[in-house]
From TrEMBL:
One of its GO terms (biological process) is regulation of DNA-templated transcription. Keywords: ATP-binding, DNA-binding, Nucleotide-binding, Transcription, Transcription regulation. The keyword Coiled coil does not apply. GO terms for molecular function: ATP binding; sequence-specific DNA binding. The keyword Transcription regulation applies. This is Sigma-54 dependent transcriptional regulator. It comes from Sorangium cellulosum (strain So ce56) (Polyangium cellulosum (strain So ce56)). It comes from the Bacteria. Pfam families: AAA_lid_14, FHA, HTH_8, Sigma54_activat. PANTHER family: C4-DICARBOXYLATE TRANSPORT TRANSCRIPTIONAL REGULATORY PROTEIN DCTD, TRANSCRIPTIONAL REGULATORY PROTEIN. InterPro entries: AAA+_ATPase, AAA_lid_NorR, FHA_dom, Homeodomain-like_sf, HTH_Fis, P-loop_NTPase, Sigma_54_int, Sigma_54_int_dom_ATP-bd_1. Residues 137-364 form the Sigma-54 factor interaction domain. Residues 48-97 form the FHA domain.
Length: 463
């Protein structure tokens, strides 16, 4: 299909069909190493990250390429290439670029490798949700509206779904919305977090147990697969499911029946499973850290929930939502005038959860807007020594704004702030060493990683 004179350039994202579909050009990013090794990936609504790290979209075998070297993004304005702070730079001709619009077929140098975006066939149409909402999830960006349209269709089926995405991107909100849009909406929505449950409890929690199956099992207990019958079981952090339990979950999902711990018989269950993880499960499966057969069983429908930094178009609507949910409800006019532009300049490693917390803090301490995003950028490396204990007057002054909030909200916010300060202080004392900080805090390394994700903190030394 050749674009007519007035049609948009083929390498832009454009909504058509009265904003119900997205015209998605077919583009492929190709990187050729100096030895002639070629790696390729499609460039569509998700950005392509190029680097040597295994979590990159395009993993380039070139020692002069950084772990996360550069990023390509398809936007309504064209293809954008951004250097991610690489050591050896991203060169367009002789010029090192930080961010530039890139035309197709133009070669760029990353390390010693050549990167080119090639048109690869006809554009396709991707359905868009017309509303920019899916259950409680808000998203006006093309990326989220395309995701909502896909999830709406998947929700109507009985298929198992796998939601991938960084911590705080909204996987649980989406899982709940899938349940609410499914024929099972009148049944229970049950949540199980593999990452927050100790390994020896996971089995009895998921599959249940008989009386006397282990010390303390005084009564028989149905597992969550059975409890979610008629509804949906959301298994969060499925990547943390112990390897030895993975065949048992696979068998249960295949046979739609479950054997309680200590039992010899099988019981049928009727729950739909939606799973989520912040890990690259496909890569873990390839490395033997996750059962490949279970991965394929879970990923019948697999969706990637984009990070907030990839969809900053969503910021105003999300901020408005958090303001409106405040008690009493607030609006954008209650924020300092430069707040939205400051928020847009931030990278949001903790995603929507971090945004929600920042908005809550902005309402309490609007005068701190300029400082607010600075410590977030510096992360744990900037852990400051704890401030001296405040006197009674200072304590009362800090309490005043909290008194305007309902107890539960105020308590959650104080707890989150405490958790963050506690974590950064211990990481600071141990120079970012997670094992030592976890030891000092008396918790597992996994929990420290989870908390780091939750608060959007990147410890010193991590890129
Ligand atoms: N699209 C969205 N619209 C409105 N609120 C959102 C959206 N995405 C996330 N949130 C809010 O952000 C917070 C974190 O979301 P959620 O717990 O669903 O993230 P998650 O990806 O499941 O995180 P984790 O992997 O850490 O469990 C919640 O308060 C949720 O309501």
């Amino acid at each position: 299909m050749k674009p007519a004179r007035d049609e948009p350039e083929p390498c832009t994202l454009t909504s058509v069909d009265r904003d119900r579909s997205l015209r998605m050009p077919s583009l492929r990013v190709r990187v050729t190493s100096p030895q002639g090794h070629v790696t390729e990936a499609p460039l569509d609504i998700s950005p392509v990250i190029v680097g040597t790290g295994q979590d990159c979209t395009l993993v380039v075998p070139d020692a002069r390429v950084s772990r996360r070297h550069c990023e390509l993004r398809l936007t309504p304005e064209g293809i954008f290439l951004r250097d991610l702070g690489s050591k050896n730079g991203t060169l367009l001709g002789q010029t090192a670029i930080l961010e530039a619009r890139l035309a197709p077929r133009v070669a760029v140098l990353v390390g010693d490798s050549e990167l080119v975006v090639h048109p690869a066939g006809e554009p396709r149409l991707v359905p868009l949700s017309p509303t920019g909402m899916f259950g409680d999830a808000i998203g006006r960006s093309f990326a989220m509206r395309a995701l909502f349209a896909k999830l709406e269709r998947a929700a109507a089926t009985e298929q198992t779904l796998l939601l991938l995405g960084e911590s705080g991107t909204g996987k649980e909100v989406l899982a709940r919305a899938i349940h609410e849009h499914s024929p099972r909406r009148n049944g229970p929505f049950v949540v199980f977090d593999c990452g927050a449950t100790t390994a020896n409890l996971v089995e009895s929690e998921l599959f249940g147990h008989t009386r006397g199956a282990f010390t303390g099992a005084q009564a028989a207990h149905a597992g969550l697969l059975e409890e979610a019958s008629g509804g949906t079981l959301f298994i969060d952090e499925i990547g943390e499911l112990p390897l030895e339990l993975q065949p048992k979950l696979l068998r249960a999902l295949e046979a739609r029946q479950v054997r309680r711990l200590g039992a010899s018989d099988f019981r049928p269950f009727d729950a739909r499973v939606v799973a989520a993880t912040h890990r690259n499960l496909r890569a873990r499966a390839a490395e033997g850290q996750f059962r490949e057969d279970l991965y394929y069983r879970l990923a019948v429908v697999e969706v990637q929930v984009p990070a907030l930094r990839e969809r900053k178009d969503d910021l105003p609507a999300l901020v408005e939502r958090f303001l409106a949910a405040h008690n009493p409800p607030r609006s954008l006019a209650d924020l300092p005038p430069n707040a939205l532009s400051l928020l847009a300049a931030h990278d949001w490693p903790g995603n929507v959860r971090e945004l929600r917390n920042v908005v809550a803090r902005l309402l309490l301490f609007p005068e701190t807007v300029d400082e607010l995003l600075r410590p977030l950028k510096e992360g744990a490396a900037a852990a400051r020594p704890p401030a001296p204990a405040p006197g009674p007057a200072a304590a009362a002054a800090r309490l005043d704004p909290l008194l305007e909030m309902p107890l539960l909200e105020a308590r959650e916010m104080v707890m989150e702030q405490f958790e963050r300060s506690y974590l950064t202080a211990w990481l600071g004392r141990h120079k970012g060493n997670i094992s030592r900080a976890a030891g000092a805090m008396g918790v597992s390394r996994q929990l420290v990683h989870k908390l780091l994700d939750k608060h959007g903190i990147r410890p010193k030394g991590e890129p």
